[in-house]
Amino acid sequence: MSDGTAVAGPDGALRCPWALSTPDYVTYHDEEWGRPVHGDDALFERLSLEAFQSGLSWITILRRREGFRAAFAGFEIAKVATFTDADKDRLLADAGIIRNRAKIEATMANARALAEWTPGDLDDLIWSHVPDPAARPAPKTLADVPAVTPESTALSKALKKRGLRFVGPTTAYALMQACGLVDDHLASCVARGAL
User: Of 31, 58, 62, 65, whose Cβ has the fewest other Cβ atoms within 10 Å?
Assistant: First the structure.
């Protein structure tokens, strides 16, 4: 059992302990998590998947990501914004995704809201909430990694003010971690600072 510090993986490299439970996690941890993501559609996908993850393990979402992409038209905001009640019924019957009515409805509503924004606004809004990296020492253990920060609370409020749903402070912080606004790889992790 880990004490929350970095753990040696199969290749001997130290990694955040959560990354070693499955090969899917190792790949996600090493190649995606904490790396900068830009573009409205790409950020809409991450925001939507983080909302679907709420209350579930991330591996559940990660293993269904291709199903989500197929079901939600590649998370192209313009396409999802045109989804109808028939699409909602199709999504509720799709075993390749998490069939949660409230989360499906929120994703569709968020796309409709975002379709009204100027292109680039979502990217600009999210990235305007990057905390000062000098004020954030590298976490040594998982206990040093917060679930919510003042920046994620502010981002959540800004997104809600612009009409988005399922974007609470914890979801906003998970988005910040996943999309590289913060680097929460542990100090001794092989992926720390590997941007």
Answer: 31
Model pTM above 0.90: yes
Sequence-distant (6+) residues with CB within 8 A of 55 are none
pLDDT in tens, 124-151: 999 999 999 888 899 999 999 999 999 9
Q: Token pair of 102, please?
A: 């409230």
Residues with a catalytic annotation lie at 28, 50, 58
DSSP per residue, 129-152: T---GGGSPPPSSGGGS-S--HHH
CB burial of 76-110 (b: ≥16 within 10 Å; e: otherwise) equals: ebeebbebeeebeeebeebeebbebeebbebbbbb
Amino acid, single-letter form, for residue 164: L
